[in-house]
Write a structure and sequence with these properties.
The protein is α+β, with helices and mostly antiparallel strands. The protein has a single domain, classed as Nucleoside Triphosphate Pyrophosphohydrolase (Alpha-Beta Complex). 25% of the residues lie in helices and 48% in strands. Strands 1, 2, 3, 4, 5, 6 and 7 form a 7-stranded mixed sheet that branches. Helix 2 packs antiparallel against helix 3. The N and C termini lie far apart (30 Å). The mean pLDDT is 96.
Length: 129
């Protein structure tokens, strides 16, 4: 089992109306998703989620409510990703070979941009709280 953790990262919209969601683009897969990654040895899921947000978006964050856990096959292996809602506290994005772009989008636009349906389900859960 591959264990991973991530966040649906959000911030108040600059307009003062609603929120924006951060999505990351991974050039290896040419997809848009929420920041996430594999747990390191001895790391809790919460520590991993915060670290992955920092590494992939440049943002520090504070974890909010837990969101549904995603379970799926990744290259034929079972994978379990534990997610949280997380408020962005600020930072600067630097492109890497793993994540080359970050987009801050309103909920509806983020939902359309996400590649995987399971990632859209996380937005629906966030919006229902």
């Amino acid at each position: 089992m591959i264990l991973a953790a991530g966040c649906v990262l959000w911030r108040p919209a600059p307009s003062g109306q609603g929120i924006e969601i951060a999505l990351v683009h991974r050039p290896k897969y040419d997809d848009w998703s929420h920041p996430k990654g594999k747990l390191k040895r001895g790391e809790t899921a919460e520590e991993c989620a915060v670290r992955e947000v920092q590494e992939e978006t440049g943002q520090s964050c504070v974890l909010g409510p837990r969101l549904p856990t995603a379970r799926y096959l990744a290259q034929g292996r079972p994978k379990e990703v534990t997610y949280w809602s997380a408020r962005a506290l600020g930072g600067t994005f630097t492109p890497t070979t793993e994540v080359d772009r970050v987009a801050w989008l309103p909920l509806a636009a983020a939902r359309r941009r996400l590649t995987q349906p399971r990632d859209r389900d996380l937005l629906d859960e966030l919006a229902s709280d």
